[in-house]
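Handout, section B. The chain below has 90 residues.
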Amino acid sequence: MTESLVVSIMLEAMRMTTILAAPMLLAALITGLVISIFQAVTQIQEQTLAIIPKMAAMLGILAMLFPWMLAQATTYMASIFTNFPSYVGG
């Protein structure tokens, strides 16, 4: 197993992690921005107000995209396990 192979596997793992986490993080970001604008307009400065909508948005995105996310992760792991003998064998 060469260094370039290890680096390419790690880069692909980080790319997959980013792709799988991005929709939920974007949902939390957009929800937090909307709640912050609402708080600024109404002058309600309650820190805990944004937690429940963010969690609900993230869970909603997770529920909608879970089949796609599972398929992506399964495909990635299947390729890792399929190519494992070539990784070890050289």
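Note. DSSP finds three helices and no strands in the chain. Compare this with the example in section A.
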